[in-house]
Design brief:
By secondary structure, this protein is α/β, with parallel strands linked by helices. It has 2 domains: 190 residues, Rossmann fold; 171 residues, Rossmann fold. Strand 8, helix 7 and strand 9 form a beta-alpha-beta unit. Helix 5 runs parallel beside helix 6. The longest helix has 30 residues.
């Protein structure tokens, strides 16, 4: 199969979808890899490294899209790429379609085979291609929250870990999944007082066993959130419903009870966001303030740490990309239930039920298209 690696063009996106090492493995399995020139530079991989790995370097994304049977991307197609997509082309990337009717309809109109990293799912419910980016975004949420607590950044001037004789800051993390756990580990390591809320009692029991004493586990409810955010210096939104739009966890009314200069970090913004007042921001302009509370809502947070994120992404996606390239999309979906769960839009049909429900579109079970 001919596999294309275009340069990422979303604002602030510095990752690339495949490392040179990944290219070498794909080549060893008989596939042709087209890499747009300079696609990996911002992740620390120059064109020479890709050429040594066996990639064919291509000038410009139009040629990559024109020739490739499968596009490996990090993010959803951007407006300048819309017309480059073609019927029957496989598009394998993070899509987050439940929060984007525009991109969903585009993929339907172009008859693309859109397989979303974030809904590839194992039988035990885990999300193997979302997990590595969650492991980056969790700690990063605390880094960003700590930074924007600085008064020069709009915060109220609190050091999360405190100092001898001065209480530490308080961090409230809504959602105890992969993002929430890694955010809590980082915040606890800094010495903050950390609360993690989740609705899954088994998850709370697990976190109780593995987290340090300055992490407090709570059953999530509107009442619990309402009380805890009054004392919070940083609130991290880390709720995930696979493939579906994120529910609102903090309302505008709750916001009015928070400290002026506190910080909200909405890691779930790519799925619509946890906070009623969230709106998508970029790395170039990452924050805004409402009612005295600083909001950070960058939709591609790991793009700021591309070296780490690209290596972690290739580690996770490579085997799946190899299987799709070797078998073709139909046979890969037939034979691998994990990949089948990743199918979001196929031949003009929405094939992921949560996406269809959130956008008010007809749902077509993927089995009928295989």
């Amino acid at each position: 199969m001919i596999v294309g690696i275009p340069k990422e063009i979303k604002a602030g996106e510095n990752r690339v979808s495949l490392t040179p090492a990944g290219v070498e493995v794909m080549r060893q399995n008989g596939h042709t890899i087209l890499v747009e020139r300079n696609a990996g530079v911002r992740s620390g991989f120059d064109d020479e490294a890709y050429a040594r790995a066996g990639a064919e370097l291509v000038d410009g994304s139009p040629e990559v899209f024109r020739r490739a049977d499968m596009i490996l991307h990090v993010k959803e197609p951007q407006p300048s790429e819309y017309d480059l997509l073609r019927e029957g082309q496989i598009y394998f990337a993070y899509l987050h379609l439940a929060a984007s009717a525009r991109v969903t309809r585009l993929l339907m109109e172009r008859d693309v085979i859109a397989i979303a990293y974030e809904t590839v799912q194992k039988a035990n419910g885990s999300l193997p291609l979302l997990k590595p980016m969650s492991e980056v975004a969790g700690p990063m949420a605390i880094q960003e929250g700590a930074k924007y607590l600085e008064m020069a950044q709009g915060g109220h001037g609190v050091l999360l870990g405190g100092v001898p004789g001065v209480d530490p800051g308080t961090v409230v993390i809504i959602g105890g999944g992969v993002v929430g756990m890694h955010a809590a580990k980082r915040a606890c390591g800094l010495g903050a007082k950390v609360y993690v809320l989740d609705v899954n009692t088994d998850r709370l029991r697990y976190l109780s066993d593995v987290m340090p004493p300055n992490c407090f586990l709570c059953m999530s409810s509107p009442a619990a959130i309402r009380e805890l955010i009054k004392t919070a210096d940083v609130v991290v939104g880390a709720v995930l419903i696979p493939g579906s739009k994120t529910p609102t966890m903090v309302t505008r009314d709750m916001l009015l009870t928070m400290k002026k200069g506190a910080v909200l970090v909405d890691v779930a913004i790519d799925q619509g966001g946890c906070f009623e007042t969230s709106k998508e921001t970029t790395h170039e302009d990452p924050t805004y303030t409402i009612d005295g509370v600083v909001h950070y809502a960058v939709s591609n947070m790991p793009g700021a740490l591309p070296r780490t994120a690209t290596l972690a992404l290739t580690n996770a996606t490579l085997l799946y990309a190899l299987e799709i390239a070797a078998k073709g999309w139909k046979e890969a979906l037939r034979s691998n239930a994990e990949i089948k769960r990743g199918a979001n839009v196929v031949q003009g049909h929405v094939t992921y039920e949560a996406v269809a429900a959130n956008l008010g579109l007809n749902y077509t079970p993927i089995e009928g298209l295989l």
